[in-house]
Amino acid sequence: MKFKTYLSKEIKYKGTLSCIGWVSNEEVYSTTDDHQLYKWSASTRDAVQVAKLPDDFLPSDLHWLLRTAGGVKGNETLLIGSTDGRFIILNKSARVERSVSAHSGGITSCRWSPDGAGLLTAGEDGVIKIWSRSGMLRSTVLQNEGPIRCARWAPNSQAIVYCQGGAISVKALAANSKVVKWKAHEGVIYCLSYGSNELIASAGEDCRYKIWDAQGTNIFTSTQEDFAITSVEYNPDGDLLAVGGFNMLKLCHPTGWNYSNTRFIDESVGSIFSLTWSTDGTQVAAGSGVGHLVLGHIIEREAICKNLKATVKSRKTMILEDILTRTSDTLDFSERIIKWELGYGYLVVATIGQIQIFAEKYVNTPIIIDGKQDVRIIILGKKYFLVVDAASIWIYSYTGRLHLNPRFAGSQAQVPLLTKSCISLGLDYLAVRDSSDHAIIHVFDLLPGATRQDEPHVIKSKTAITELSVSRAGGSNEDQYLCYIDANRDLYIVAISSGPDFIVNKIGTQVISGMWCSNSNIFVGLHDACYSVWYCPGEASVDPTLIALTTVTYDTSEFGKNVTIESFEGSYITFRSSGAAFTIAIKPYFEALHRFVNDGMWKKSLQICRAFNHPVLWATLAAIASRQNEIEISEEAYSAAIQIDKVNYLQHIKALPKASPEQMAENSLMNGRTTEAEVILMNNRRIKEAVEFCIRMHRWEKALEIAQKSSDNELFEFVQNERRKYCAALSKEEWIPGFQTLNGGISSLAIQTDNF
Fold first, then answer.
1. What φ, ψ does residue 311 adopt, rounded to 5°?
2. Cα gap 329→347, rounded to integer Å
3. Residue closest to 504 by CA, chosen among 562, 449, 443
4. pLDDT at residue 419 is higher than 90
5. Cβ atoms of residues 515 and 529 within 8 Å
6. Whole-number Å distance between alpha carbons of 207 and 562
7. Gap between the Cα atoms of 663 and 666, Å rounded
8. Phi-psi bin for 419: left (phi > 0), alpha (psi -120 to 50), beta?
9. How many CA atoms lie within 13 A of 496 on its CB side?
């Protein structure tokens, strides 16, 4: 992957071109000290003068408001700051709508907030201010000694990152919040970028660029260049980083390592300033030190899925190869390629105004969906694929039929803030993290006939969620699961089919990112210096012992630093570090076991476990068989895994009358479904058994409630006596209010029952 770069046909500015901004995916605006505002065509590189700024106004920064808070395009508002402390707001016809004197010194940064609700200005006077969209002062965030070189919004518009000298600071806008500050560079920091991936890129006169998290932890430090780094910028999706220096433009991974390094040797362009990405994240524009406008677009981006490999060769050309048969097809498009994904035997390509679906066996006859513009995200699933544009979320079948247009409260305003880490498409479910409250997940059912479009289930986490993933496989005998990672790097799992009363279980700690296998419910999670494979995270999540038995951790120190998960197809996991791909094979019989269980082939499941006789394999079969009430198989599997306590409990379950409510309740209890066990007993009028079950589980208040409803004095006495024994064993006084009223004896119980 690299940039294909072009220089402007003519130099319109005699000095440094320092102010540039994309107004659309095809047009760029620029201005500098000569007061001329030009509009450039990204395809022809021709310039047209739009307006002339006032003679006493010397521009220092420029930024377009491309979307409003409602997710509707609002690219008619241009913000320009000046060296005398003023900023002006212009509409698209270049008429000045507002001129404000904001700072006592020059403005170094002026930026619209990501949600479009306001703007910030930072200046040489050491002050950062926040203004409304109409230019009214809202607050003065900071007043410091020393000039502020650069300031940027956080992706959620709730914090500001800025630099002074060689230090970087992050200031949250919440009341009484403290500033997080750290020493970042040896010299002066020239530029900052705060990506949607929550990473901060910085560069300066020490000739290095560095990557940080929001707490100041260094993720990456580049080698020292010959000249100072003058610009860094994350693309809107946060999955690419552009770095500019003297006669140099780099395309980098978000964690810092290089994809490509472009050197301008034939013609000197000077240092690269004011580096900006187009809204589709495929093009860059930058101003040079000698007045050139530098334009670039990404080519040679490739993806591999099983036997297929897709590569972008130019703006409108792709090559689809079959690695096994060594055949290839050249795909030509009438419009520029914006987004594309490869998987499950399909290639889905979004151009400026269309979506084209190519099947592996019918490459020459694509299915075309017209009218889709500004496509930002494409995610492929086994049955459907997902498209996110500027206005909404769309789910299509591979025949081109619209299957679902999911919506939730506030979704229209939140769609522009969605990233791939906060939306996941599974086999039969869609999960979306709420952008206004990061602790909420909306779950949509994609099954035909479900009341799913406007009535999603809601999963609430205790802390903010950073990444989520829905299982991509499953069947009639397997549940489907959602894994999510919170801000504390804890990994949680929930069975989606158990909604709306979701039971969330914690199965891992210090997890950076994770991914489900494409064709089985196996999950891989990446830690700082290792990775873990959960071979049946959903079925084993109810029992910490089972999670430990069915999870294997491997070291990744040989891969290097900043490792990411590229793909998980079948039994192969692909990691990437510093540009190198590492494909690791997990034991193939785990994937085969899931396939046999999904098809109901229990005998073959036993055969494969007996053949390889691996303790983790036996524990995986035990967890799955127990979940699906296969008592005989789970007993043998637990025995082979040397889980004697569980074998004894299964023998107790087998001793109960077959298919009786008691047996079903005990089996539900073994699988962690406590409420389900209680409901089974109550629905079958096993009142005494239900009370005994609640006491055994120390659900004393529920046992008292059932006894009160039964109007059985003997049952009252039984609950009261058991509670007294419990308190006596703990040497404590009664502390539950409901039982405190029972100390008067049976008469008081009878009175309560009559009142009830």
1. -140, 135
2. 12
3. 443
4. no
5. no
6. 22
7. 5
8. beta
9. 30
Give the C-alpha separation, 208 to 185, whole Å. 8
- The per-residue pLDDT for 91 is 82
Q: In the numeric block, which tokens belong to residue 691?
A: 């009370």
Residues 6 or more apart whose Cβ sits within 8 Å of residue 558? none
Rounded average pLDDT over 199-223: 92
Count Cα atoms within 13 angstroms, Cβ side, for 34: 13
Report pLDDT digits (tens) over 224-236.
998 999 999 999 8
- d(CA 229, CA 189) in angstroms, rounded, equals 9
User: H helices of 310-441, where?
Assistant: 411-414
Q: What is d(CA 217, CA 749) in angstroms, rounded to the nearest whole number? A: 62
- Residue 551 phi/psi, 5-degree rounding, is -120, 130
Nearest to 619 by CA among 589, 594, 640: 640
The Cα–Cα gap between 662 and 653 comes to 8
Q: How is 518-553 classified by DSSP, letter by letter?
A: SSSS-EEEE-SSEEEEESSHHHHTT-HHHHHHTEEE
CB 415 within 8 A of CB 393: yes
Other residues' Cβ atoms within 10 Å of the Cβ of residue 162: 27
pLDDT tens track for 339-369: 999 999 999 999 988 999 999 888 888 999 9
Residues 94-103 have a mean pLDDT of: 87
pLDDT in tens, 680-695: 888 888 888 888 888 8
- As a residue count, the chain comes to 756
- The helix (H) or strand (E) run that includes residue 27 is strand 27-31
Which SS3 state, helix, strand or coil, does residue 264 take? coil
Task: Find the distance separating the first CA and the last CA of the chain, reported in whole Å.
Answer: 73
DSSP letters along 215-256, please? T--EEEEPPPPSS---EEEE-TTSS-EEEEEBTEEEEE-TTS
The Cα–Cα gap between 139 and 159 comes to 13
Judged against a pLDDT cut of 80, whether residue 742 lies above it is answered with: no
- Beta carbons within 8 Å of 353's beta carbon, 6+ residues apart: 335, 370, 371, 372, 373
Mean pLDDT value across residues 400-405: 90
The predicted pLDDT at position 471 comes to 92
Directed axis angle between helix 713-730 and helix 746-755, to 10°? 120
Task: Write the single-letter amino acid at 672.
Answer: G
* Amino acid at residue number 649: Y
Bridging pattern class, strands 258-263 and 248-252: antiparallel
How far is residue 53's CA from residue 44's CA, in Å, rounded to a whole number?
25
CB atoms inside a 10 Å sphere around CB 746: 13
pLDDT value of residue 523: 95
- Cα(359)–Cα(436) distance, rounded to whole angstroms? 37
Mean pLDDT of 548-564: 88
Amino acid identity of residue 69, one-letter, is: A
Question: CA torsion 725→730→732→735, rounded to 10°?
Answer: -70
pTM here is: 0.84
* Vertex 376: Cα angle to 370 and 381 (nearest 5): 80
The SS3 assignment for 675 reads: helix
The answer to whether 474 and 480 are in contact (CB under 8 A) is yes
Q: Which two tokens stand for residue 193?
A: 């970028």
Give the CA count within 13 Å in the CB-facing half-sphere of 156.
17
Q: What distance separates the 2 farthest-apart alpha carbons in the chain?
A: 101
Whether residue 114 is predicted with pLDDT greater than 90 in this model: the reply is: no
Q: Hey, is 50 helix, strand or coil?
A: strand
107 touches 81 (CB < 8 A): yes
What are the CB-based long-range contacts (under 8 Å, 24+) for 329-336?
329/363, 329/364, 331/358, 331/363, 336/282
Q: How confident is the model at residue 489 (pLDDT cuts 50, 70, 90)?
A: very high
Residue 65: pLDDT over 60: yes
Give the pairing of strands 440-445 and 429-433.
antiparallel
- Measured CA to CA, the distance from residue 509 to residue 311 in angstroms comes to 37
**What residues are paired with 262 via a beta bridge?**
249
Judge whether residue 96 has pLDDT over 60. Answer: yes
